[in-house]
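Exercise 7. Given the encoded structure of a 261-residue chain, write a plausible sequence.
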């Protein structure tokens, strides 16, 4: 496998893997020096990505060959440090978006085994759509990670997303097979583990190879979907700046009131 010897890893990764018959835990890492300060892999439950950061990929396959794909990695929602940290993360994301000239797509990353969507996720999702305006509704893409155990489907999370969209002002957002993509990172973890000299048997390698082929094909499908349906960018205008200023002002009210008590 070419990727095994020459991985292109722009975003640093770190995870724990069990090895040997006694299930010894080993921390596996692969990272670039210029990305170290943007990732926190030591805080359990914390958002690993600390700040928004842009990564540019030079596409290598088929009709996409030579084209640039810019992905903006953002902090997640549901930080264990509490609502205040989530507020800060969300404000940071909105500030970063506010400085962009345009967007082509927004990918919402989820896991397929959620039994419920938190109230905070629902409110932040609606807040994001409200700030960017209705034009962004046609540019929402749903990406499900860790999906092999659910046969590469949205799993239990699918009905929750449908209910969220049906009950929210953003009813224009589609949740359909065309804009939904399912991956699993286990094959990538396998490659990173191999680089860390961890051994696998032939049966495990065959499983990871199949997983790689499935997720790789789905990734190409995602890129093709964006190129075909979202090539014309959404231009971010002054109304977004006004809404962002309102959000910033609202976020300041609570701490100011608490300080006055």
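Solution.
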């Amino acid at each position: 496998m070419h990727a095994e010897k020459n991985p292109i890893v722009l975003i640093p990764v770190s995870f724990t893997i069990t090895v040997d018959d006694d299930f010894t835990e080993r921390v596996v890492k692969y990272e670039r020096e210029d990305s170290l300060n943007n990732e926190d892999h030591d805080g359990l439950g914390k958002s690993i990505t600390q700040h928004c950061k842009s990564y540019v990929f030079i596409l290598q396959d088929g009709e996409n060959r030579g084209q640039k794909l810019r992905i903006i990695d953002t902090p997640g929602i549901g930080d264990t440090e509490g609502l205040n940290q989530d507020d800060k993360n969300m404000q940071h994301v909105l500030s970063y978006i506010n400085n962009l000239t345009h967007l082509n797509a927004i990918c919402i990353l989820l896991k397929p085994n959620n039994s419920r969507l938190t109230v905070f996720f629902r409110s932040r999702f609606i807040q994001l759509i409200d700030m960017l305006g209705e034009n962004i509704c046609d540019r929402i893409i749903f990406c499900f990670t860790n999906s092999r155990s659910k046969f590469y489907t949205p799993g239990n999370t699918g009905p929750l997303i449908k209910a969220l969209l049906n009950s929210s002002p953003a009813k224009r957002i589609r949740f359909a097979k065309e804009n939904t993509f399912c991956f699993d990172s286990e094959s990538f973890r396998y490659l990173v583990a191999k680089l860390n000299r961890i051994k696998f048997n032939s049966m495990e390698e065959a499983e990871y190879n199949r997983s790689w082929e499935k997720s790789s094909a789905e990734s190409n499908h995602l890129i093709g979907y964006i190129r075909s349906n979202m090539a014309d960018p959404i231009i971010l205008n002054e109304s977004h700046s006004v809404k962002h200023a309102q959000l910033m002002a609202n976020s300041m009210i609570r701490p100011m009131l608490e300080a006055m008590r």
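Remark. DSSP finds seven helices and nine strands in the chain. Students should compare their own answers with the one above.
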